[in-house]
DNA sequence: TGACGTCGTGTTTTT
DNA sequence: CACGACGTCA
């Protein structure tokens, strides 16, 4: 290949000695200990490019990242790096993603061996809690006495430690509560199976089980993924460790990157020993330390080093940079959280008006999601656009979950969480009451069948034998004729939609579902709240547009998986000009020119719930360290004298993590003695807009637009456009679709505010497309 | 059976 | 403060 040498040198160009050593390391285990800002993403991407340049097939590479967004970005960077040098589809064929998404794919493919239906659905937090409540009820335990959330936490940590219900009751029980949890766990797991569902932890645990039980299947994956790279290795848990370990034992090409100082997920069962013991697991490992920081000014790094140095359980590391001459880190005391927020808003306004920075250069970071509120309010007043990461996510909104429930049910009718959601919530007035539900659930629970099966049996559509329940003495309950009628309608609807799935594209299927289920008319009261909900539901159609080109059955699987495994940062916008509000946890791996860390107080950072154990305090310290090291140019740390918690005012003192910082590294005194009232650092606590004009009451609207993580329905046609579309496409017209290729229009039909165009494509398939969405071109 | 009101309770971080 | 569970009323 003529341009090969160019490509080769561009892969290695500009790397420092250590990075180069990591990128070009020979086959075998490699551990890269990478301090913040030391270019670890760079090392990972260049390493993969290097492997490709050495003739390794992209099909043989697996890269595990912490977020889907990171995977996406890494793939793009590799594509840019190698271009078409090794064929144009190189980077696309690398397997990249989070542990959860990779495992989901493995289970979809091979889970059958351990009894997992290929149509499984993924249960989120909400679904899990519902299921735990159901399990509690069935066992006859009071859900008030045994908080479902605590039980869920126990189950989750058991699963992360690879303990199934039997293991847990025999090994994991050390208290009365554990014993209860063990019983619930057992029933909960049965319920998951009946619903053909898995939870987040199952995704990991079941793949370990699969690989351990079926060496031949494991061998297939070992042959496939001969090169394995893992990012953020310090945050892997036992299950993830086992996955990687099983996979890499044969070829031993394991390349992990991590930093013990940035381990912040021990509460999610991450085990820092995974990285500490790497050299023991792989004695032949090459270990490379990346200590040069390319991100932050020396002034910021100094503060970071002093903060982390109070941790005892770490090997000392010396971060250095040659970026000096920055501003000192500013520390400010605010009177309360409003004052703190106003100060930040004013500072951002000041810096942007100087023209030095734009809004997207700023991030505000905090320990708990609830701290974002006063900041949001201040930003609204000061008209600062922002996006907020986390909190209530798009996919957690009620109407979105409602629509997803229909989709999940189309995909897998045994998913009782979705079925119940549809029956109980929306649209109301289905005519299926509590009594009926109780009867059906009893039947389901006694016969060990799904709720869906129970309904079909009660309706006489199926027999007990047909669904695999052999209980000749079981009495099939009689239902009221009204309830029966309603159930028939619901079952009919789902069957009908399942048929539509084989005909329509995914966005069109959602559109149809909204209409046929009555959900659309349910939301068409015209009230503002309903309008917004409808819009959210329709945003889902726009998102599904990405899947319009593949077979809908397949599209549904991919779509539901993406939705379920979407992380907070995955929804983040990189383009818009807006300030980012984000938790310290979610900020890991990101960087901003100017960072504000708020709530640097005892009780918040370290958090009150983490103050009992020293190891917890150390984790809080690492959290502070992660935050500080996100800043490239300017860092602001603030804490509030008063803070409203729960409605009551609390008085807080500055965080202990500030205590180790020499005062001359900071701009702003550390008033460990003496407290001052409002106005110490701010001239006033009453906000003024920078322009001095009055601001509108509906402040949220202003920024509300800017942080919606998903497109508004701007690509829906207005009715005036509709005419145009109908005139544009006529039967017999030849059209081109970006993904399906050329085809002939068979039929055009008005569908509500849109038009449906039926096209037969040259490839032989016939699809019904929404005119507003399909991006059809006439030829 | 549904809608509305009161009371009680609980918030760390997330795939 | 805000949300959910529960009870009462129509």
From TrEMBL:
Pfam families: PcrA_UvrD_tudor (PF21196), UvrD-helicase (PF00580), UvrD_C (PF13361). One of its GO terms (molecular function) is ATP binding. This is DNA 3'-5' helicase. It catalyses: Couples ATP hydrolysis with the unwinding of duplex DNA by translocating in the 3'-5' direction; ATP + H2O = ADP + phosphate + H(+). The keyword Ligase does not apply. Its EC number is 5.6.2.4. Keywords: ATP-binding, DNA-binding, Helicase, Hydrolase, Isomerase, Nucleotide-binding. ATP binds at residues 34-41. It comes from Thermobaculum terrenum (strain ATCC BAA-798 / CCMEE 7001 / YNP1). Residues 669-706 are annotated as: Disordered. InterPro entries: DExx_box_DNA_helicase_dom_sf, DNA_helicase_UvrD-like_C, DNA_helicase_UvrD/REP, P-loop_NTPase, UvrD-like_ATP-bd. Residues 13-297 form the UvrD-like helicase ATP-binding domain. Residues 298-589 form the UvrD-like helicase C-terminal domain. PROSITE patterns: UVRD_HELICASE_ATP_BIND, UVRD_HELICASE_CTER. One of its GO terms (biological process) is response to radiation. Residues 669-698 have a biased composition (Low complexity). The keyword 4Fe-4S does not apply.
């Amino acid at each position: 290949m003529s341009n090969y040498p160019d490509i080769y040198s561009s892969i290695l160009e500009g790397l420092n000695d250590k990075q180069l050593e990591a990128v070009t390391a020979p086959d075998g285990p490699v551990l890269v200990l990478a301090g913040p800002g030391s270019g670890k993403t760079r090392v990972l991407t260049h390493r993969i490019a290097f492997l490709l340049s050495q003739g390794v097939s992209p099909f043989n590479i697996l890269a595990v990242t912490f977020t889907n967004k990171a995977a996406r970005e890494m793939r793009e960077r590799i594509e840019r790096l190698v271009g078409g040098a090794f064929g144009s589809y190189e980077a696309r064929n690398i397997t990249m993603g989070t542990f959860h998404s990779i495992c989901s794919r493995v289970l979809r493919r091979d889970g059958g061996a351990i009894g997992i239906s290929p149509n499984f659905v993924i249960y989120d937090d909400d679904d899990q809690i519902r299921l735990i409540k159901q399990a509690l009820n069935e066992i006859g335990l009071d859900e008030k006495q045994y908080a479902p959330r605590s039980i869920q936490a126990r189950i989750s940590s058991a699963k992360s430690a690879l303990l199934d219900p039997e293991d847990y009751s025999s090994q994991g029980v050390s208290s009365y509560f554990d014993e209860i949890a063990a019983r619930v766990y057992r029933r909960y797991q049965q319920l998951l199976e009946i619903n053909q569902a898995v939870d987040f932890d199952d995704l990991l645990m079941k793949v370990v089980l699969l690989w351990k039980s079926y060496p031949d299947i494991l061998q297939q994956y070992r042959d496939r993924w001969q090169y394995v790279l893992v990012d953020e290795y310090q945050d892997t848990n036992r299950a993830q460790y086992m996955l990687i370990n099983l996979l890499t034992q044969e070829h031993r090409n394991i390349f992990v990157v991590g930093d013990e100082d940035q381990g912040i997920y021990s509460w999610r069962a991450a085990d820092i020993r995974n990285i500490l013991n790497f050299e023991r697991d792989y004695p032949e490992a090459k270990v490379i330390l990346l200590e040069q920081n390319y991100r932050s000014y020396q002034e910021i790094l100094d503060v970071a080093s002093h903060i982390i140095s109070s941790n005892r359980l770490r090997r000392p590391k010396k971060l250095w940079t040659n970026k000096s001459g920055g501003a000192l880190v500013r520390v400010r005391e605010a009177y309360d959280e409003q004052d703190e927020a106003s100060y930040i808003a004013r500072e951002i306004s000041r810096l942007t008006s100087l023209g030095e920075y734009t809004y997207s250069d700023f991030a505000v970071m905090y320990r708990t999601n609830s701290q974002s509120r006063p900041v949001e309010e201040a930003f609204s007043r000061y008209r600062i656009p922002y996006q907020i990461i986390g909190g209530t996510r798009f996919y957690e909104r009620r109407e979105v979950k409602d629509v997803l429930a229909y989709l999940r049910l189309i995909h897998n009718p045994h998913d009782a969480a979705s079925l119940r959601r549809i029956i109980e919530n929306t649209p109301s007035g289905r005519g299926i009451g509590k009594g009926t539900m109780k009867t059906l659930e009893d039947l389901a629970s006694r016969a060990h069948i799904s709720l869906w099966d129970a309904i079909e049996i009660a309706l006489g559509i199926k027999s007990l034998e047909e669904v695999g329940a052999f209980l000749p003495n079981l009495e099939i309950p009689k239902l009221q004729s009204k309830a029966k009628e309603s159930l028939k309608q619901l079952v009919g609807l789902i069957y009908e939609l399942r048929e539509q799935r084989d005909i329509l594209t995914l966005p069109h299927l959602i559109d149809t579902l909204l209409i046929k289920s009555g959900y659309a008319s349910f939301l068409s009261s015209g009230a503002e709240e309903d309008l917004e909900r409808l819009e959210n539901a329709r945003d889902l159609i726009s998102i599904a547009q990405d899947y319009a080109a593949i077979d809908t059955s397949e599209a549904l699987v991919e779509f539901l998986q993406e939705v379920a495994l979407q992380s907070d940062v995955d929804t983040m916008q990189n383009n818009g000009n807006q300030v980012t509000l984000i938790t310290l946890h979610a900020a890991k791996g990101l960087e901003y020119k100017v960072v504000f860390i708020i709530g640097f107080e005892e009780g918040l950072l370290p958090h009150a719930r983490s103050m009992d154990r020293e190891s917890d305090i150390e984790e809080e310290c690492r959290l502070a360290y992660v935050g500080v090291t996100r800043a490239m140019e300017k860092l602001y740390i603030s804490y509030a004298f008063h803070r409203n918690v729960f409605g009551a005012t609390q008085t807080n003192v500055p965080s202990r993590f500030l205590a180790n910082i020499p005062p001359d590294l900071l701009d702003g005194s550390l008033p460990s003695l003496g407290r001052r009232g409002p106005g110490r650092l701010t001239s006033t606590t009453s906000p003024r807009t920078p322009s001095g004009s009055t601001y509108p009451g509906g402040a949220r609207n202003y920024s509300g637009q800017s942080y919606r993580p998903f497109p508004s329905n701007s690509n829906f046609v207005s009715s005036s456009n509709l005419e145009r579309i109908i005139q544009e496409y006529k039967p017999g017209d030849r059209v081109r679709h970006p993904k399906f290729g050329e085809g002939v229009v068979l039929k055009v039909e008005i569908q509500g505010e849109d038009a449906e165009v039926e096209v037969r494509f040259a490839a032989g398939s016939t699809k019904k497309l929404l005119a507003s969405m399909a991006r059809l071109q006439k030829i």
